[in-house]
Amino acid sequence: MPKVTIDGQSIEVPDGTTILQAARMIGGENVPPAMCYHSKLKTSGGYCRTCIVKVSKGSDKDPRPMPKLVPSCRTTVMDGMEVQNNTSPEVLEARRGVVEFLLINHPLDCPVCDQAGECHLQDLGYENGAANTRYDFKRRKFKQIDIGPYIKLHMTRCIMCFRCVKVADQITDNRVHGMLNRGDASEISTYIENVISNDFSGNVIDVCPVGALTDRTFRFKSRVWFTKPMDAHRNCTKCSGKVTLWEKGEEVLRVTTRKDKWGESEEWICNECRFEKKHINDWVVEGPRHIDPHSVISLNHYENVAAKLKLDIAKQQKQLASKK
Ligand code: SF4
Ligand code: FES
To answer: The domain 3-97: what is its CATH number?
Structure first.
C-alpha cells in the first residue's frame, strides 16, 4: 500500500487512491476544497482546479517534485509521495487566483440565492476570495430557464463543473443535456429541459455546487438556516427512499438527498420522493440530521442548543459537586 504524506501527516492508502481521497481519509483542516469532484460520480473532477496541491516529492523511487501544481482529485498517490496543501504559500496564492476566476462571471446575488448557506462557492470565496474584483469587462449573463415544473436553471451562476452532466449521464437513462461551445462561450445546453421526464433528474439540484440549478418547489420559501433538517425514509420502489426533510414548523419545505461531510449526496433519490412527498405523514422520521458545525445551517439548531445545554449542565454539576 503506498504511503503519502500530506502537510506533514502520513497515511497508507490502497493503490489507485487520489491525493484528495487520501487527504479526506486523514481528515481535518488540510483537506483541499473540491467544487467539481463528487465521490459518487465516476470521472468527475479535473475541471475547476480548486483542489490544486504541490507535490514536493514525487515518490521514493523518483523523489523529484512535480514541475507544476496538480489537481489533487485527479492525481494518484505514489509510495513515498509528499504533498503540500495549506503549508504551501504557492498553493494558497494559486487557489486565490482560481477563486478570482470562478467569481469573474458569478453574480454576487447571495442575498437572494436559494443556495446561500450551502453554496460551496460562497464558502470558498469567504475563505480564499479577494475583497474586490479586478475585472472590468462585460460579464456573461443568461436568462433563467424553467426545466419543467421542478428545476430552475440560472446559467449566470454556473461554474462549469460538469457534475449535472455526469448525473444525467450516469444516473438517468438518457442524457439530453450537456456543455455547449468552448471557453467563455460555454453553457449548459437548454436541452436540459427534456431531462425532467426522467425519474432521477432532480439529483442535478443536489450536485450543483452553486445556485445554478435550484428546486422550483423550494425557491424563495425560506433561507436554509431557518429550516430544520431531519433524516427520514419511506418505502420507495424506485430509490432507497432515504432522504433529508427540511422542515419549518410542521411543513416540509423541501426534500433532498442526505449529504456527507463533504457536501456530496450519499444516495440518489427519485423525483417522486423529492418533489411529490411533501407531507410529514409520507415519511418515517428518524431524527435530526447532523450538520457540520462550521455551516451556517447549524446555527441555532436544536442539536447545537442541546449539546450546549448538556455542556452547561455538566459544568454546573461539576461546580456544585466541588462546593460540597
Ligand atoms: S449547472 Fe451547476 S452542476 Fe451543472 S455545470 Fe453548472 S455549476 Fe455545475
Ligand atoms: S475538484 Fe479537483 S479540479 Fe475540481
So the answer is: 3.10.20.740
